[in-house]
């Protein structure tokens, strides 16, 4: 355990959102978000739909696992809550942590009705700051489907650079193997 991480922020503020660690009983709101975005998420986040998207109870179990993994410093999963409506509108996580480097991977999505409004840009910028300055990570990576141009533009806006392609790296629920594009962001290039 890294004792310096005992007092990190559990809520991050952006102009339009509060990005915060999940709390007990957030599963109902998380299920509603997953259900509303089911078609998109089945292709892009099938593991999430398998774990949390099947039932309300499954969503609550997932949320509580996220809380436990936060405390164990294994994954930092957060809900994105709208300042205007106080509803859960997105999800972001720093996962696949390798404390030997230290590095981590970012995963994220926002409600389909809020895409291309700049909300996820401000959320990711704030989460990157959190990862570098509070978690003290040296490197962040993002993997996107090779044809997910919106996500690729988003991570470039936040400061990530393309590092390469991963051939046949991801299997869609249909069984088709597809390529991923890998982006990286090193703390040494991060300018507050």
Automatic annotation (TrEMBL):
Keywords: Acyltransferase, Transferase. Pfam families: Acetyltransf_3. The keyword Transferase applies. InterPro entries: Acyl_CoA_acyltransferase, GNAT_dom, N-acetyltransferase. Residues 17-184 form the N-acetyltransferase domain. Transmembrane segments: none annotated. PROSITE patterns: GNAT. Belongs to the acetyltransferase family. RimJ subfamily. This is N-acetyltransferase domain-containing protein.
């Amino acid at each position: 355990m890294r004792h310096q991480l005992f007092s990190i922020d559990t809520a991050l503020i952006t102009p339009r959102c509060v990005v915060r660690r999940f709390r007990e009983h957030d599963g109902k709101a998380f299920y509603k978000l997953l259900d509303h975005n089911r078609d998109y998420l089945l292709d892009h986040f099938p593991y999430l739909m398998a774990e949390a998207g099947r039932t309300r109870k499954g969503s609550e179990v997932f949320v509580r696992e996220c809380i436990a993994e936060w405390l164990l410093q294994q994954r930092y999963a957060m809900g994105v809550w709208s300042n205007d409506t106080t509803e859960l509108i997105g999800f972001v996580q720093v996962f696949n942590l390798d404390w030997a480097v230290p590095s981590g991977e970012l995963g994220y999505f926002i409600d389909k009705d809020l895409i291309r409004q700049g909300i996820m840009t401000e959320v990711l910028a704030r989460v990157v700051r959190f990862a570098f300055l509070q978690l003290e990570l040296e490197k962040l990576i993002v993997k996107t489907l090779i044809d997910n141009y919106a996500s690729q533009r988003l991570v470039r806006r936040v400061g990530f650079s393309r590092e390469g392609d991963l051939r046949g790296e991801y299997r869609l629920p249909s069984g088709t193997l597809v390529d991923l594009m890998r982006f990286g962001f090193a703390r040494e290039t991060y300018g507050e």
